[in-house]
Design brief:
The protein has 4 domains: 193 residues; 86 residues, Beta-Lactamase, CATH 3.30.450; 83 residues, Helix Hairpins; 145 residues, 2-Layer Sandwich (Heat Shock Protein 90), CATH 3.30.565. Helix 2 packs antiparallel against helix 3. The chain is of the alpha+beta class. The protein is elongated. Strands 2-1-6-5-4-3 form a 6-stranded antiparallel beta sheet, with helices on both faces. The protein has a 5-stranded mixed beta sheet with strand order 8-10-11-13-12, covered by helices on one side. A two-stranded antiparallel ribbon has the order 7-9. It is built from 14 helices and 13 strands. A hairpin with a 3-residue loop joins strand 12 and strand 13.
């Protein structure tokens, strides 16, 4: 099977040959012109002729001076002759004479010139000096004649060579012009052939266009039928659809879209662009979720997010670009799916919480319970060995020590269980409207009764302070803060508790005058198992403050601290208020 040659190959070759011939002709003409310019620059005939003329005029000036006709200055004529010979001794002229084999004649003329220069300056008689000058001038003129003859011969030979070169270049230029004419004729013939082909192609195109119009009409009818099917399918689809053009203008929607989205019922207020529709939907969305595994559009350019709409449930929005620059919006009702996913997530969290609870509890037991158990064990062994020999008062003191160890063990168990429940997300806050003043006064009264003394002083506004909190969790936080204040301050110093409010929060400030906390340890104070170096002599496990802060933050509150080592410590419990009333007391 023969391979058809591309139509542009022959015209391309003709144009390439045309350009090649033209470029070659211009290049040869440029070389000829450049050679003519260079030969004019290197012409030595004028230089040698001027030197001969200067030597003859110098000879005439010397002869007139010998005859007593002194109106011509020999020194001036000598200077002219000297300048002409120096010009011949210059770089390009000397190289030219050296290549022509005339360098020796030039050197001889220069030597006679120097001798004449010396004679012109000697103080001898005029007749002797003139004879000596003429004796040097004659060989100088003879040498210049030889130089002129040699230069003339070199010029004739160079001119003949140049003429031969010009003749060859002219022949090449003529051949290039002939090639240019041939290429031009070929291009003209190709152009005529292309015009004929174009005319034939136009006729074939007209016939193909008529055939194509018939096919387009048939295909249009088929597409219209298919469009009706698609529109019917979209109108009856369970999802909402909206189509937008490349400028974002709304083209069409299906009835389901108005059921799934809270759109205005008036046509004049309905959004007509994609941006306006998305803005309207997001204004009414309670929350928005994106696919966590996708940071941008998918491989096909589609974008997807889930929205929770007020009184409508969850909707999934998918925007997919079309091949024409437009986009398709799909809205699906995923309320049931979200409910099932939420239930599954809560069950999974509970399962994780239980596992984490047991893990944390086991770790806590192995880490914190050894010391109290060791105290109980050693005390019981002593009582068993020395029970009869031990005095009743000393035995009673041992019993109290064992009770303290058991109480510490109980506190450890309660703190460990609370910490494990927090780790396992087993503690949930059930906030309600609570009178914070009553809660604080009750917690202070219980602590005073437990300690058997009344060191806690309460300062509160006259009007009640109502907090939005979980009563049991707040009681646990207050018990921890008050017991710490009593434990880490001298028995003679009081503990001040002050209540107040800001614009949206209530606070309970517990201030002691105890050992204080170093400034470099304040950032780590709420870490689990952390204990300040100033509190190493006091019993504790470093869980209370960590638990207190976690419980406060579960209720959208917090526990903060400020302290001066050796001066005392202030812990502040913050809780959200149920009113916007601002009290005059500032916790800072």
């Amino acid at each position: 099977m023969s391979t058809r040659r591309p139509a542009y190959v022959l015209p391309g070759l003709a144009i390439l040959a045309f350009a090649t011939f033209l470029g070659f002709a211009l290049f040869r003409l440029f070389l000829v012109e450049q050679d003519m310019r260079d030969n004019v620059d290197e012409n030595m005939l004028w230089v040698t002729a001027q030197a001969q003329v200067a030597s003859h005029r110098f000879d005439q000036a010397i002869s007139r001076q010998a005859l007593g006709q002194g109106h011509d200055d020999p020194d001036l004529r000598f200077d002219v002759l000297f300048s002409r010979l120096m010009l011949m001794d210059d770089g390009p002229q000397r190289r030219y004479l050296s290549q022509a084999g005339l360098e020796a004649s030039l050197d001889s003329a220069l030597a006679h010139l120097e001798a004449i220069d010396t004679l012109l300056t000697e103080p001898r008689g005029d007749s002797d000096r003139i004879l000596a000058i003429q004796g040097e001038l004659d060989p100088l003129m003879t040498g210049l004649n030889r130089l002129a003859t040699g230069v003339m011969k070199e010029e004739w030979e160079a001119t003949g060579a140049r003429l031969d070169t010009y003749r060859a270049s002219l022949v090449q230029v003529i051949a290039s012009v002939v090639g240019i004419l041939i290429c031009g004729l070929l291009l003209i013939s190709l152009l005529i052939h292309a015009l004929r082909q174009r005319r034939s192609a136009q006729r074939a195109l007209m016939a193909a266009r008529d055939h194509l119009e018939d096919k387009v009409a048939d295909r249009t009818r088929e597409l219209e039928t298919e469009r009706r099917r698609v529109v019917t399918a979209i109108d009856t689809a369970p999802d909402g659809f909206a189509a937008f053009d490349g400028a974002g203008q709304l083209l069409l929607t299906n009835p389901k879209l108005n059921e799934l989205l809270p759109l205005p019922t008036e046509p004049a207020r309905a959004p007509r662009t994609l941006d306006a529709l998305l803005t309207l939907i997001r204004r009414q969305a309670r929350s928005e979720e994106h696919d966590p595994g996708r940071s941008g559009p998918g491989p096909d350019g589609a974008m997807q997010c889930d929205l929770e709409l007020a009184e409508h449930g969850w909707r999934q929005l998918t925007i997919r670009p079309t091949g024409e620059g437009g986009s398709i919006l799909r809205v699906a009702d995923i309320t049931r799916y979200k409910a099932a996913a939420g239930a599954l997530e809560r069950a999974l969290q509970r399962e994780r919480g239980v596992s984490e609870f047991y893990r944390s509890f086991a770790a806590m037991v192995s880490h914190q319970f050894r010391t109290p158990l060791a105290v109980i064990d050693s005390g019981l062994q002593r009582l068993i060995r020395r029970h009869d020999a031990m005095e009743p008062a000393r035995r009673l003191a041992r019993y109290h020590q064992l009770r303290e160890a058991v109480a510490q063990m109980t506190r450890l168990v309660e703190s460990s269980l609370t910490a494990a429940r927090l780790d396992g997300a087993q503690v949930e806050a059930r906030p309600e409207r609570c009178n914070l003043t009553d809660l604080v006064e009750q917690a202070c009264r219980l602590q005073n009764e437990a300690q058997g003394e009344s060191r806690i002083r309460v300062s509160a506004p006259t009007s009640p302070l109502f907090a939005w909190c979980d009563r049991s969790l707040v009681e646990q936080i207050l018990a921890n803060l008050l017991s710490n204040a009593l434990k880490y301050s001298p028995a003679t110093e009081p503990v001040d508790v002050r209540l107040g409010a800001t614009a949206s929060r209530l606070y309970c400030r517990v201030e002691d005058r105890g050992i204080g906390i170093p400034a470099d340890e304040l950032p780590r104070l709420f870490e689990r198992f952390f204990r300040s170096r100033s509190a190493r002599e006091v019993s504790g496990i470093g869980l209370g403050l960590n638990i207190a802060r976690h419980l406060a933050r579960l209720q959208n509150g917090d526990v903060t601290v400020s302290s001066e080592e050796g001066e005392g410590t202030i812990f502040t419990l913050w809780l959200p208020a149920t009113t916007g009333r601002i009290q005059d007391v500032d916790p800072h």
